[in-house]
Amino acid sequence: MAQKKYLQAKLTQFLREDRIQLWKPPYTDENKKVGLALKDLAKKYSDKLECCENEVEKIIEEIRCKAIERGTGNENYRTTGIATIEVFLPPRLKKDRKNLLETRLLITGRELRSKIAETFGFQENYIKIVINKKQLQLGKTLEEQGVAHNVKAMVLELKQSEEDVRKNFQLEEEEQNEAELKEKQIQRTKRGLEILAQRAAETVVDPEMTPYLDIANQTGRSIRIPASERKALMLAMGYHEKGRAFLKRKEYGIALPCLLDADKYFCECCRELLDTVDNYAVLQLDIVWCYFRLEQLECLDDAEKKLNLAQKCFKNCYGENHQRLVHIKGNCGKEKVLFLRLYLLQGIRNYHSGNDVEACEYLNKARQLLKELYIDPSKVDNLLQLGFTAQEARLGLRACDGNVDHAATHITNRREELAQIRKEEKEKKRRRLENIRSLKGMGYSTHAAQQALHAASGNLDEALKILLSNPQMWWLNDSNPETDNRQESPSQENIDQLVYMGFDALVAEAALRVFRGNVQLAAQTLAHNGGSLPPDLPLSPEDSLSPPATSPSDSAGTSSASTDEDMETEAVNEILEDIPEHEEDYLDSTLEDEEMIIAECAPSGGSFQPQDCSSSQMPSGLSSRCIQDFSSLPEGTD
């Protein structure tokens, strides 16, 4: 298959260079039948490629037929508005995986999915359609989603079947159940990530009691991200980790939607951030790798663009010769696994594009890196006997050029450093939570406490001054602003308390109305403003937003709420199971996949021939994979 793709790419390249139009005479007659001149063309190109003339003639004829089909489709689209979509079917369908489907672009995504399912024999609810690197949205029209004539559509099958038709009803039922479970799993993934991202945005969860995700730099310390981008970045990294977990389990059909969702959320972050962290580059590699493992690289029109983007991002992050990386981490051995995969994918892409010289160059780079990254199993065993994990052993040995003693010291030092950082980060979160509780105890809402502490860089006294100077912040409500916006009459007892403190009775009553009877807040505000209320403070229900609710919600519907909470807990736990404990998990690989593929890319006549491999082997914590931020170092740092 790979050899045929290579010949197709080379022949297409020759045809373009020679400006040959196969759909016109003398290669096609007036009845659109093949012309005699095609045999001469096949002879010319087979001599040039030093391969079988009959095989070359057959491939040229396929190219000619496809060109005629495309021309017919273009004419049909101009006259009738009916577009042609090139549908790529799952790998299990060994024959006729690439098919043409005619449709109008005003139909919805759901209608297209139904049409594909009916045409090619799928169960409609158990397939996903990917077009332009995005999942097809069922409720929008194709036109609204940017689907155009001659676009490529890839079908992802949620079920794992080996035959087109199941004769055994029990097997069919099991297959449907499996597909339903996978679809539910995808939905739980989305829900779990949304919950964790929201908790991260609130930053008031108890680290001892509530699971949450945090974003850390390359040292493991939490970093502050603008609120406008934090949730998008958290979702992007969460989807990426979930996708990587599916990749490890070789569930490529489920991994791809997660990776594409991660790409979508990363694109909501500012360009400056994407250019200074390696996460986005690693994602590009994972997306191209996933298409490759699905044997659908030709569906990814911008594979070259993604690989070039990854290479550029690595250069920006690590420096021209990895000098930034060495400055921060002291070595660059672990990151070389990323370049191995990059070079391998670049070689495969170039091969499928007919660029055999460039393909050979990239493959040779990959081979060289594979030799450098090889780890002696006995050295891993030595480190295992010292109490380290296999993952720590691989990463440590690559960081220390295979020296066991240095690797043991490196791992031990890193463990101690991370333990100290985690202790400090945990204490910092605990103090912040206590400060928020202190301000809430004074009557302020969680939202107001958060904003004040953020503005005061975590200093409780300064945050209180900010709140007293801006009493309108009291109306930053945590609950529904439409709930209970009444201002009850303050009790005479509370008024007397404020009068006893020396405040005017009328002013005291007004303050108590504003602060819903909260004597402490009223007294603090009056004292801070010289015995009067600030002129810009709303004094009536019509002028004010609703204050924080002080009473618990109604107990009705407790059973339903409990069920929802259980479902949320399940969704969150599924996400956390796939978040790796080690911050450099993405750099750890046995390289079995890469080794096998490189071995199958046997040199032949100055080029290499990668084979389609679908059976190779692929080689948990509350924090997401760290952001590797290298932006603070200049390009020339040594």
From TrEMBL:
Keyword Hydrolase appears in the UniProt entry: no
Domain UBA: 374-414, 424-470, 489-529
Gene3D superfamilies referenced in this protein's UniProt entry, alphabetically: DNA helicase RuvA subunit, C-terminal domain (1.10.8.10), Phosphatidylinositol 3-kinase Catalytic Subunit, Chain A, domain 1 (3.10.20.90)
Listed Low complexity bias regions: 539-562
Biological-process GO terms, alphabetical: proteolysis involved in protein catabolic process; regulation of ubiquitin-dependent protein catabolic process
Matches recorded under SUPFAM superfamilies: TPR-like, UBA-like, Ubiquitin-like
Listed InterPro entries: NUB1, NUB1_ubiquitin-like_dom, SASH1/NUB1_homeodomain, TPR-like_helical_dom_sf, UBA, UBA-like_sf, Ubiquitin-like_domsf
Keyword Nucleotidyltransferase assigned: no
Start-end of Acidic residues biased regions: 563-580
Gene Ontology cellular-component terms listed: nucleus
Location of region: Disordered: 532-580, 602-638
Compartments (UniProt record): Nucleus
Bias-annotated ranges (Polar residues): 606-631
Keywords in alphabetical order: Coiled coil, Nucleus, Repeat
PANTHER family per UniProt: NEDD8 ULTIMATE BUSTER 1, NEDD8 ULTIMATE BUSTER-1 BS4 PROTEIN
Protein name (record): NEDD8 ultimate buster 1
